[in-house]
Specification:
The complex is a heterodimer of chains A (253) and B (226).
Chain A (H helix, E strand, L loop, with lengths): L3 E12 L2 E12 L2 E6 L6 H7 L10 E9 L2 E2 L7 H7 E4 L10 H11 L6 H14 L3 H4 L12 H13 L5 E5 L7 H14 L4 E5 L3 H7 L2 E6 L2 E7 H6 L4 H7 L5
Parallel strand pairs in A: 3-8, 3-9, 6-7, 7-8
Antiparallel strand pairs in A: 1-2, 1-4, 4-5, 9-10
Helix pairs in contact in A: 3-4, 3-6, 4-6, 6-7
Chain B lengths: L4 H33 L3 H33 L3 H35 L9 H22 L2 H31 L4 H33 L14
The chains are: A alpha/beta (253), B mainly alpha (226).
Amino acid sequence: MDGIAASLRNVNFFYGSQQVLFDVNLEVPERGILAFIGPSGCGKSTLLRSMNRMNDLIPGARLSGEVRIGDEDIYRPGADVISLRRKVGMVFQRSNPFPFSIAENVAYGIKINRLARDRATRDAIIERSLRSAGLWDEVKDRLHRPALALSGGQQQRLCIARALAVEPDILLMDEPASALDPIATARIEELANELKERFTIVIVTHNLQQAARVSDRTSFFLMGKLIESGETRQIFSKPVRKETEDYITGRFG
Amino acid sequence: MDIRKHFLHQLDELRERVLYMGGLVETAVHHSLHAVTDRKPELADLVTEEIEPEINHLEVEIDERALQLMALQQPLAVDLRFVAAALKIGNDLERMGDLAVNIAKGAPRLLSQPLAAPLVDLPLMAERANRMLRSSLDALMNRNSELARAVLESDDEVDAMRDLIFRQLIQSMTQDPTLVERSLGLLFIARNLERIADHATNIAEEVIFWIEGIDVRHHFAEAPPT
């Protein structure tokens, strides 16, 4: 096991007066895939989004506790959210390519972060990112065509390429395959499996079989609390907590 | 509230079929031995012609049910362990049925002549082996791993009984060589009963695995393989 990519200490989260996360403590190991599972409203997406401050713009949203990405406390006053989002990329449930060309989508983060000195460097990053996302062979002849003309699965992989272009340390995936058919889903899972060698991936999924297939570790949440966290093979064959077992076997007491 | 009623019902059905199969095996073991001890060859025929074929049929049925559950319902955690255990228990029960048939098939020859030795220890041994099977099945029915653990301890007793019977029979064969053929027949029964007890022990281990998620075979629980 490498080091710790992110650590959360005593994280509480509120939407106004409603508390949705209670005292969450969790370490995310470097590389590998961590899955967050739990019923709707258990707080797993909120926690994921708190790891790159995606909740900041929601009125009344407030976090207490500490979220560290690498060595940095990302909620300390004066923390740089732009550089945080460069380090922590995100892919959403619905693919959201910009209404630009394929190449411009991938180049977007490069441009705003000024990562490329010249056009050749930029093109090299575009190609590398699309290859990493397993999309290069499908789009290399139409890089300047509109991204929105791609299929749903291709759009999602384009969003992954866009996130990878700025070389983040962590990739957050919020239900990345829930709108895709089984084949496109399998490609995303396969891709996640390749990317985990180089990146730390945290994935939120409602699909238990998907969590079981792709992740190395799994954390189970219920009503805002982290109930159990462990190796995926243990969680799915021999969970320790009764709540975990009841959830993954479809029993609710 | 259970939201997977249909699935849970199918799991219960699978368990009922395993228990039913276990009951047939119990009967088969009982009849095969009583064919000899009570000198009733018709009990041996009942085992080979009626009971054992049904046991075989049930093994296939249990395999099919278990595979369908895995394919269609994707059981996890305790349910996954149960389906895996059911497959193995079905296999153990089928082997026990074969062993009962072995005993039953030896009955006619044993019954054709006077017995080589008093049978006192064999019925006792059969009773003990069958009690192990019944306890394993009770543990399965009541989800009771304590009961299953008690079965593991009985296995040594059955082994000791087999050793005792072996010694007695070897002694009688040494003293009177005309008893060799008949003694071998009894020795063969003891050997089959001991194997039956081994399978009952396997079933107890599978029940413990289902309930506790601990693999107690070969003492792996103490030093799990990495």
